[in-house]
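Following up on my earlier message about 3-methyl-2-oxobutanoic acid. Here are the inputs again, as you asked, copied directly from the submission form:
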Amino acid sequence: MSLAKINALIEHGEKVAMLTCYDATFAKLSEAAGLDMLLVGDSLGMVLQGAENTLNVSIEDMEYHTKSVAAGTTVCSIMTDMPAGSYEHNKETALLNAKKLIAAGADIVKIEGGGEMVNTAQYLIEHGIPVCAHLGFTPQSVIQLGGYRIQGKTDESAQKILQDAIAMDKVGVHFVLLEMVPAILAKTITESIKSPTIGIGAGSDCDGQVLVIQDLLGIYTGPASKNPEAFKSPRFAKNFLAENTSIQSAVQAYVKAVKNKSFPGEEHSY
Ligand code: KIV
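Thanks, got it. Here's what our run produced:
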């Protein structure tokens, strides 16, 4: 599934189904279940390494897991996160690190934030690296944002996210990923830009959906050091394993629900 084929799916009105993936076994299983794209997310810092946030994930971690996912994939496109510290400080370093992820097997890299990051995205694109812009709640800025909070609730912050999406679209990003924003804002952005949108906690009008696989399986219970009883799953997550008898059928059910537009429902949106 090349990025061009993903675009063709979207042009035919089909929603893109994407999950995070960090290893070859889950890559094979996810591909067999019909997913279009796999995200090697820096969420691996939380769901694999047990940390409180994604801030300490390294470029080497991302290369290792991208290689593992690529080993298990023949059809799905692979998107890999550029981890915190690997792209924000200067464009040349960003390009060097993006090339490492592409060499490891990524088809496209994802960077977080608008504003200054528009120039970085443009620089990567000019050097032949496909880019996804991650806007709204950006996990690498969790401290600055004051925690895991919905973004774009005020007119001013909604405008800022919309303008960032338009600017990213203009420099030619391949996708805009929107996390934890009001569904109405995600709809406006989707209708305002050419690049397809992928949502997580961004309502049902995005062109595609992504979830962290541990959330889809209902097995993530917070940082390793914290009491699992205290963990509250985010509103946008749905445990598909609760209604299915195997991991394979849970992933298939997710693909079906994204494609037939029954997921996310209003109860998963803001
Ligand atoms: O790292 C990740 O898994 C992500 C998703 C939350 C979209 O960026």
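One observation from looking it over: Residues 3-268 form a domain with the TIM Barrel fold (CATH 3.20.20.60). Hope that helps, and feel free to reply on this thread.
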